[in-house]
Amino acid sequence: MSNPRTLRPARLAMPVALVAAALLAGCGAQNKTDPEATASLIQPVARVVIQAVTIAPGSRTGEQIYKSICGACHDAGAVGAPKTGDAAAWGPRLALGHDGLTASVIAGKGAMPPRGGGSDLTDTEVARAVAHLANFAGASFTEPPVAQ
Ligand code: HEC
Question: In the structure, which protein residues have their CB atom closer than 6 angstroms to any atom of ligand 1?
Fold first, then answer.
């Protein structure tokens, strides 16, 4: 029992218990005095969960699709993708028009897989994502609206 290692847990037990008690007391006080603050703190998490459940294929916006799929390559110009907002890289491509570019993405082009890898995207969703992406580089495509 002279090994100092075996003594350490006992020495720590008291301060740890005090800190735990203080933290618990703090939580309790917060709940009692401000339930609305607690609700607003957890709200962002709840919102994300609700979105994941309610956004059905077919009704995703261009921004949502871009952020979850297209940005993986286009944000930084990975694997030769024309970088988002890079007007020089997009200029010649924009000449294909909204429909032409949408057709490219549906079919896949070069290192870009069909539908940009989003195999469950509808054609309309691809068109939304193309508008969102190309408009950063100066296009003025109209994103097909999401039916409510
Ligand atoms: C795996 C990487 C990757 C992902 C993910 C990706 N792209 Fe691409 N994208 C590319 C590359 C690489 C090119 C250039 C292809 C070429 O010209 O050879 C490209 C080109 C394009 C073009 C121009 C097509 C043309 O005809 O010039 C559009 C529009 C486009 N992407 C939109 C999208 C959209 C919308 C998404 C999401 C649904 C997406 N991309 C996802 C890599 C990607």
Answer: 65, 69-70, 72-74, 79-82, 93, 96, 101, 104-105, 109-112, 116-118, 126, 129-130, 133
Sign of CA dihedral 103, 105, 106, 112: positive
What's the distance, Cα to Cα, between the start and end of the chain in Å?
A: 72
Q: Are 46 and 40 in contact (CB under 8 A)?
A: no
Tokens representing 102?
């949408």
Q: Encode the chain (148 residues) as per-residue pLDDT tens digits.
A: 444 454 455 555 555 555 555 555 555 444 566 777 766 666 655 555 545 555 778 999 999 999 999 999 999 999 999 999 999 999 999 999 999 999 999 999 999 999 999 999 999 999 999 999 999 999 999 999 998 7
- Closest-lying ligand 1 atom to the alpha carbon of residue 92: 27
